[in-house]
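We close this part of the discussion by returning to an individual protein. The sequence in question and its structure tokens are set out directly beneath this paragraph:
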Amino acid sequence: MYKWRGDQRSQGQRPAPREVEAERLRLEEDAVARWRERLVDSTAGRRTTGAIAPTLSEWVRRQHGRLTFRATQVLSDHGCFGAYLAMIGREPTAECHHCHRCDRDTAQHTLASCSAWAGERSVLVSVVGGDLSLPTIVARMASSEEAWQAVLTFREAVISQKEAAEREREADASAPMIRRKRLGRRRRDYLRHLPCARDPARRSQ
């Protein structure tokens, strides 16, 4: 848009507001189309890209909702799920620790079928309907602020409980093959500069 405006000025043109808006919309449509092509051709994150690509225009143009850290976990399948934690070496198996009937705990299992979250899921279904496949969930979120909020409420409630359970397993010294979180350099530096880290008397309290 910046280049187009510059070209217009260099030619001595002063486009009317309606012409500027028409060009902006044309450029936006072109950008979304190229973005969609990249999503369709992507070899990584196919679950996520496949769900978003069909409704990309609606997703981009929506006037409501912001993604949270926990909501992104459910969209990407990278988070507090047995399959992901096992893949990165944080869990010995991919099984679900909450329903104990699934040997592969994924974001979709958490969203649609884990019996541990039946109560939270019933509230979600009352708003978005019974189809909890990710493409449908993304479409509902893009089209409705109520649906967006219902999905975020479900995710925040459920993922926070899964995270708490994961912390308990990490703290359990008897748990087999659980790799503890390693603190990054910035986090270690932060902890060293806390008052209690510098004052032995306060550290012992």
